[in-house]
């Protein structure tokens, strides 16, 4: 979506962070795997809503060179948090059990709400949108990426089954339809014409590689250190 639709009131970001509290409570009190998975889905939805407001918040508060520095700082802190989270999670699990990984979000959410209510100003009036959101494109993207993720997560030692073929076809068709649709709607979910700009394409490639190395690499490194080398959780996560 264009930024017009992403720019919610800044104070509402703190409210969203606080609203994550009940969801984190559900995950903390989960009694079985289905309960935990349902809570994790809700957590993911809430995190997506909060994260999408990060850049608009920074853009509203800063201009010019200060905006570039602020966006860079925001990205650096986000990456650092992703790298430090496994270490903190390992310490919490060893000390208090797996439920502590979700319980820690309760005071953090309350602090985020209090800080947002105190620091963030009301949102500046956004210009009236010139079109309708691309809901079909968003749904196709979610369907395509979701089914593709299921294929990536399937165990490698299991034989290929009929449902895997269905998931593969669904992902391919949904993503192909998404790409076609993006050239036909006035306000696309992803404006593919931006990739014709070398600077933009280069920046997106750099972001992709950094995310793969920082997030994907750290996950496999933790598994190698803990399961392969037999280190305990805090040492392996470090």
Quote the distance from N terminus to C terminus: 38 Å
User: How many individual β-strands?
Assistant: 0
Which stretches of 5+ consecutive residues score pLDDT under 50? 4-11
The ordered string of helix (H) and strand (E) elements is HHHHHHHHHHH
Mean pLDDT, nearest integer? Answer: 79
Domain tally: 3
Query: What is the radius of gyration computed over CA atoms, rounded to a whole number of angstroms?
Result: 20 Å
The helix content, as a percent range, equals over 70%
Task: Name a few traits of the molecule.
238 residues, mainly alpha, 3 domains, 0% strand, globular
SSE map:
Blueprint lengths: L2 H4 L3 H19 L4 H19 L2 H8 L2 H33 L2 H5 L1 H15 L15 H19 L8 H21 L15 H31 L4 H5 L1
Structural features, described:
Residues 4-11 have low confidence and may be disordered. The chain contains eleven helices and no strands. 75% of the residues lie in helices and 0% in strands. By secondary structure, the chain is an all-alpha fold. The protein folds into three domains: 1-129; 135-184; 195-238, no CATH class. The radius of gyration is 20 Å and the shape is globular. The longest helix has 33 residues, at 64-96. One of its GO terms (biological process) is response to antibiotic. The chain crosses the membrane at residues 41-59, 71-93, 100-120, 135-153, 165-183, 203-225. This is Major facilitator superfamily (MFS) profile domain-containing protein. Residues 1-238 form the Major facilitator superfamily (MFS) profile domain.
Summary, kept brief:
This protein has 238 residues and is mostly helical.
